[in-house]
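Because showing beats explaining, we let one protein speak, sequence and backbone structure tokens together, and leave readers to judge.
___
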Amino acid sequence: MESLPTLDEMVTEAKRAFRDRFGVTESVVASCAPGRVNIIGEHVDYNGGFVLPMAMPMWTVVVGVVSRTGDSKCRVHTNLANIECPDFDFDLPSNDSSTPLAPFKDPKLLWANYILGTVTEFFKIHPSPWSGFDCCIVSSVPLGAGLSSSASLEAAVFTFLENLHKVETDQVEKALACQRAEHTFANVPCGIMDQFASILCQENKLLYLDCESQKFNHLSFDFPDHAFLVINSQVKHQLADGAYRKRRAMCEKVASVLGVATLRLADLRMLEENSDKFDEEHIHKAMHVIKEIDRTRQVFAVLSSGDQSQQSLIAIGQFMNQSHESLKTLYDVSCVEIDTLVECAVNQPGVLGARITGGGFGGCCVVLLEKSVVPAVVESLERMYKEKFCKVPIFYMATPQKGAAHCVT
């Protein structure tokens, strides 16, 4: 089981890295934002559907100060893993500047575009003539694992800027600003779930989000003897490679032909009556979305009913299993490593359900199980996976955390 550093330990690490890079220890401010795992409701956020994520106990932390020279220069350093160019700088444009910030083209600095986009969106909302800043970024959210490292980075940077300049932003407006940053600077057409989860989640709660209305509820998971185990397959995904974009475009095409704004407003009858207008691939993608939205609604109904029976847990597990099968066969976003982990997990005693989570194409799966069987399940899956794929998966216990926040320094 992976032992994750606490938030306090992450802040201490960030302060140490900042001191080593910039030589400053006094008057620093720190902010954080978590990664997330989605329990059910996959690839439906950009289709107006419902999602059910929780914030994970893994964090991106930003520590820094206002520029000591008072100019517009911003200097950024990170110790993120596998970053070829951990330092970059840029100048904040003035309010009347005709040359706004633009994304980096250098492949070594593509990670920095998430920060540039977030800075751009922050100053659109808070356009005062701010000074530049120096900052250091550390994170325990694994990159490319489907646990929302990008949204965690965006939310942490935006919250750091709020903290630095003593301003506040409506949480929904803030989440949408971070989503725009990813669209325009990182060129990833993501839905709204990741940014909303990283910003709006609460400790010990799941977040039930209506991605069409942007209304949300915080739900308790009132099953003290059960938990969610997240398994990192160590197979990296890359959402900007076109596969994600292709699926989103296919869903939008089906919705357009059906005459609805999003697939949230479609049903299987509509799809069947118009099946002659689509090839099999388009039909499969739409079927997944329509059924996944319904599954998420039903899990919400179970959790909000107050029924703490074993039957409720069995129902949630069955919906998770159905979700995985749909993502595997209809939406085609799984992989052999994830499928093997899920198949092995659901055959373990005490496991009620398992599914791929996140964007797919690798990354993680999430397992609903009895707490008492966690050690045995981890041992069995680790042994099987190592023998079959010559890799060691990483296991995390998913305990719901708070969303983006300022940290005590």
Summary: The chain has a mean pLDDT of 94. The two ends are 29 Å apart (CA to CA). The first strand starts at residue 29 and ends at 38.
